[in-house]
Amino acid sequence: MTGPAQATPHTSSRSAVLDVIRAAGTISRVGLVRATGFTGATISTVVRRLIDDGLVLETGRAESTGGKPRVLLQLNQSARYAVGVHLDIAGITYVLTNLGGSVVARMSRAGAGAEDPPVVVERMAREVDALIEGVGVDRDLVMGLGLVSPGPLTPTSGMRLTPPAMRPWEDFPLDRALEEATRLPVVLDNDATAAALGEHWSGVVGGSSTFAALYMGTGIGAGLLVNGLTYRGASGNAGEIGHICLDVDGPECWCGAYGCTEVLAGPAAVVAAARADAELARAAGLTDGDGEPSRPSVVAEFAAVARAARAGQPAARAILDRSARHLAVAARTLANIMDLELLVLTGPSLAIAGSTYLPVVQEEMDRAFFSRATHPVTVRLSTSAATAPAIGAATMVLQSELVPLRQGLRLPEDLSDAEPGGTARTGAAGG
Amino acid sequence: MTGPAQATPHTSSRSAVLDVIRAAGTISRVGLVRATGFTGATISTVVRRLIDDGLVLETGRAESTGGKPRVLLQLNQSARYAVGVHLDIAGITYVLTNLGGSVVARMSRAGAGAEDPPVVVERMAREVDALIEGVGVDRDLVMGLGLVSPGPLTPTSGMRLTPPAMRPWEDFPLDRALEEATRLPVVLDNDATAAALGEHWSGVVGGSSTFAALYMGTGIGAGLLVNGLTYRGASGNAGEIGHICLDVDGPECWCGAYGCTEVLAGPAAVVAAARADAELARAAGLTDGDGEPSRPSVVAEFAAVARAARAGQPAARAILDRSARHLAVAARTLANIMDLELLVLTGPSLAIAGSTYLPVVQEEMDRAFFSRATHPVTVRLSTSAATAPAIGAATMVLQSELVPLRQGLRLPEDLSDAEPGGTARTGAAGG
Description:
Chain A is α/β, with parallel strands linked by helices. Chain A contains 13 helices and 13 strands.
């Protein structure tokens, strides 16, 4: 089912053709007919429009098996760009990608922390400006901004039932505020779902178009890709394995349930266990001289515990191992429900400690995955675990070009004569 | 996204058109163009073929908003039939459906029990004969037989890692043996997946095309329908919630893992708990005078405990309540991972005790489903819980007509001149 020139289902012929060209690198019109199943006439019309719009280039000719050589097509990579932003309490990660989804600029800045949402939004707008200007890209070519953050998200905007530290963001009209501040169309999504898309476009999954990305940042979640499309569920919040129950008699989670993966295995649980061990807390630098927290975020604290474990500190190793064993059981639940063949470990916390978690998760799959008699589950560590959500956020913008009639989202053609005020863009996201 | 005349994705235009006609009841060619997105010319060609094949009838004319009245199309319900068989240790359920998926005959017989697979297959062939002959349907119009059983199944045939009682079925070439015995093409699938299909075609889900069917028979599983298509996963074993972990320190399951839903909540666990209480065991009739098991299957024993609970026996109520609470947590995990809006309780054991389980599952969703701030999860009790898997099995055959190029499956047109020996049908299923 998979392969570089294999079409994935799309709602428009334009989207399917662009996606196949992107995946193939170079491809002829005949190749597009084969890959998409569209008629030659449809391909001819769609390709002409894409060339007229400057999104696709003709590039040399392929050897043919007879008849005249075939003209090859490829994306005009630098025709359009997209901004991807991963907003988390612990850090904000930015990427700028070209039309092909390649990262042309990236940067990391301080997380949302305890700042008020409007203050963070103004800062994000300045940081997006710096990202685009720093690499010298014409702002008129930037199609939009994808922003991803911990779920659950409502379909229209904003976060719901957020972790305690992000409560001020509930009911904040994030998409509209960010559109006004950046003068870019904004799409919002769940960071774990975006991580799966990011892995698909840039990661370690090779030709696989069906897999789950197990995400650990400040929280734990999963993104699901099925035949190249994100599986989103009823409200875009599919994959919430951070709040499945691993222990009916377990401790209470901030979400109100008991024995959740996040309260047993998440970075905050790891840090709390490390801090309960005064010697380890000191050795890992979790506290300053007065016993007060000395690091800016739970991910930074988690990184300190992970470093202590790598340095051979037995208490740190035991704590991480316990977290890994719980995460492995959650991963097995995900594999059982989705009947997975491939699972990718990703996200900022697994960028730090993934090598500790990988063998534990793989062992759990080999030992106890229910359908193991029919096929194994391969577990891989992402090579872009820290930036996968931001890359996925940018590709959401690129894919909204692939579906140009997406409600309210301006087409690239409209960008040059758009008014700076941006009222026409309000409501571009979500809907 | 849903509605009676809404096309769901299919691999062929014929399949999409048949499915829309079935769902709509009656529909015009113009309506088909709207519902499928195909051109008028494509619809015209496909409909002509379907009428020529006798699968679709023209039936009267609809009022038009102008111009000539539109001819309405409907399925020729009695043009083809399909057999659905649900094979379980505790019982074998048969249905015969017409082309529209309506049940025209049903029967229940003794389960596979401890009999040898070849003996059971010969019996199933006789019972299928009785089913078809009993209702006077011309056997040449029977397209094939769908057989569903507890998973996991291999893609090619047979069961793997089956519950202990079904071990003799591992490696038994069930599809080929059944094809030879019944002289019908056979498709195999997981009973929980079939239950979801059965609910979609006949059940309580109304217009919903995305939901999960939580199945409890001898075992526990789930079937997933996404936009009207079964979500099957890498090997057709998606939805295995019977073997997700609810308690990392829980008891060992027959599958080798610990704290599985099935070992905590399944009918065998309920019966074991009831039997451990000598008074309850006697009151529920679980044992004969000598303390030996007196009922033919675990589902029959489970039914006895459920009856005792309904009669107000406190120990029986407590045992069922404990099972329901564990099943509810598993259901919440499923809802969190799939971001569900609708869950249907189905399967033979929930046909018996569903009214006890329904409020407990609904309460767990309302209280602890992670995305509850964005939308609720509705839980419904199936109205065809005992037969949904068999109905789903038959619809798999009907849908393979909808995909007529399915590997090796004979087309209905070929049935009248097929040789009785059936070698051409070997390998019809799975592949």
